[in-house]
Amino acid sequence: MKINLAKNAGFCFGVKRAIDIAFKTAGSRQNVYMLGDIVHNEEVARQINSLGVKKLKRLTARSGRVLLIRAHGTAAITTAKALALGYRVVDATCPMVKEIHKTVKVMEQKGYTIIVIGDKKHDEVRGIVGQLKKKAIVIDNPKDPALRRLKKINVGAGNKSAPTGYIQKAAVVVQSTQNLEKVLAVLKELRARAGEVKFFNTICRPTTVKQQEIRIMPLENNVMLIIGSRSSANTRRLYEISRSLNRKSYWINSKKDIRRAWFSGAKSVGVTAGASTPDSTIKDVVSCLLRLNP
Fold it and tell me: Fold identical between 2-10+206-292 and 13-93?
């Protein structure tokens, strides 16, 4: 059975950078804390925690402590509160996510209603909307009730006046790990519900490349393995795309999840991994697959 590993499987630049910052900060022998995990991967979280970085549920007054901002970013009010309470803030937010923060702040200042296409409860999305003074609209799919509540101009009936609830100016950004096909479907609906739509395709380059690969590999391999945590949104999207193209696609967290029966009669298996999956986990999976070969 041939094993084909995706060229861009595993860590992206933003994750590597965040982990490097976490290791460097932990090595400074200061009291380092995070509001959650540095990235959405249990193995990486264990590594960071083993260095003495502790997780907090909420901020309390503690001078001399360090708050490490995770790769997904955080709301502006969280950073401001941490500084006011005496923390030194070390920001490991992905630079591409920081660019989204800048974009929404600039467009809000220009009078645009901010719309974020992304997962409502995801840390990155919460961090994006947390940069704003006014409430943003978050839409996670073309059938989202939040989208349907936006009024549509009934041009076909000759009514070109804007009804109550119609958005005059909308600036649309995207969670950096979204599926472009879904984003374009949402955008099509939005264009019928706003007088002016400025769209910023803020899907990051690593996500785009990974998704390009996953639209080809399932068609070229009998079986697909997608490695990553169940809490990883970008891994979930890789799996969803793969599964739509090849029913023998399996989402695993580690080599322990592999089942020999999946590969019965298979001549090739494609392997990819989400942006927060460490190289060591990928290597373990490949080694396990090699042992399955007769």
Answer: no
Q: Which of 124, 189, 213, 220 does the annotation list as catalytic?
A: 124
Q: What are phi and psi of 3, to 5 degrees?
A: -110, 120
pTM across the whole model = 0.89
* CA distances in angstroms from 161 to 194, 197, 226, listed in the order given: 12, 17, 49
Q: The domain 2-10+206-292: what is its CATH number?
A: 3.40.1010.20
pLDDT digits (tens, 9 = 90+) for 9-46: 999 999 999 999 999 998 877 789 999 888 999 999 99
Q: Where are the domains of the chain?
A: 2-10+206-292, 13-93, 96-149+163-203
Class in CATH terms, 96-149+163-203: alpha beta
Is 240 known to be catalytic?
no
**Domain covering 13-93, topology:** Rossmann fold (3.40.50)
